[in-house]
Amino acid sequence: MKHLVTIILFAFSSLSFSQNTGMLIGKIMDNELQNSPLVMAQVTIKETATQTNTDLTGMFVIENLKAGDYTLVCGFAGYETQEINVHVDALEPAEVKVSLAASTVSFGDLALLSSTAKKDETPFIAAN
């Protein structure tokens, strides 16, 4: 009987330790294209430097997070980076949906120089 009580206590203690971490599930979408998924967008948790990328449907999953508040940084080339505050609970997965807007590119510092090519010469174009 003593061994049975020990086994039951050990089983309950291991279950309680496995519930100390939470999960973050999310989807990153393109604000410019009717919220279509952004494939391979980068998702980073600022406090832990944990990184992942979205899949073909724009979804991502980050597991084994301690319960608490985190800053989620979502980015994709050519889009504005967004930071979102997220609370992770050990008992229920936190869900996030993010729409990224395209960023603007300034060509104010770009100067193009060109020259005309004479016969048997290669044209020359330089960007500064």
Beta-strand percentage range: over 45%
**Helical residues, percent:** 10-25%
Q: Biggest β-sheet, characterized?
A: 4 strands, mixed
Can you name the CATH architecture of the domain at 21-100? Sandwich
Mean pLDDT: 80
Number of helices: 1
Termini distance?
83 Å
Could you name the CATH class of the domain at 21-100? Mainly Beta
What would you call the shape?
A: elongated
CATH superfamily of the domain at 21-100: Carboxypeptidase-like, regulatory domain
Low-confidence segments: none
Query: Strand tally, please?
Result: 10
Give helix and strand order, one letter per element, not per position.
HEEEEEEEEEE
Signal peptide: 1-18
Keywords: Signal
Protein name: Carboxypeptidase-like regulatory domain-containing protein
Quick structural overview:
With 128 residues, the protein is mainly β. The protein has one helix spanning 2-18, and strands at residues 21-30, 36-37, 42-45, 50-53, 59-66, 68-75, 82-88, 94-100, 112-115, 124-127.
